[in-house]
TrEMBL record:
The keyword ATP-binding does not apply. GO terms for molecular function: metal ion binding; transferase activity. CDD domains: PTS_IIA_lac. It comes from the Bacteria. Keywords: Magnesium, Metal-binding, Phosphotransferase system, Sugar transport, Transferase, Transport. This is PTS dihydroxyacetone transporter. It holds the Pfam family PTS_IIA. Its cofactor is Mg(2+). Binds 1 Mg(2+) ion per trimer.
Amino acid sequence: MVKEEYYTVAFNIISNVGTAKSLVIEALYAAKEGEFQLAEGKLEESKQFFREGHRAHSSLVKREANGEQLDFSLILMHAEDQLMSVETISLLVTEMIELYKRSK
């Protein structure tokens, strides 16, 4: 894999999951204000960006599983860290929104 292509995939992951994280936080703020429909919409939109980031990550995993040697990279490590943290944040925010719904 050409280094530029590798970095493009890593930045694709970072960009998409970063947008997903922003939308999840916006959903939390909307729920805090009692705007649950808006919150649900933000969560759904965030899932689209997360899936795109996950697809990009999966493409690298598949290439390596097929025997291609991928270089270690802090940029990819950062991308994977962001991917995992957004998944965790999304789960927690979804639960927090449910708690806000019950308290209103």
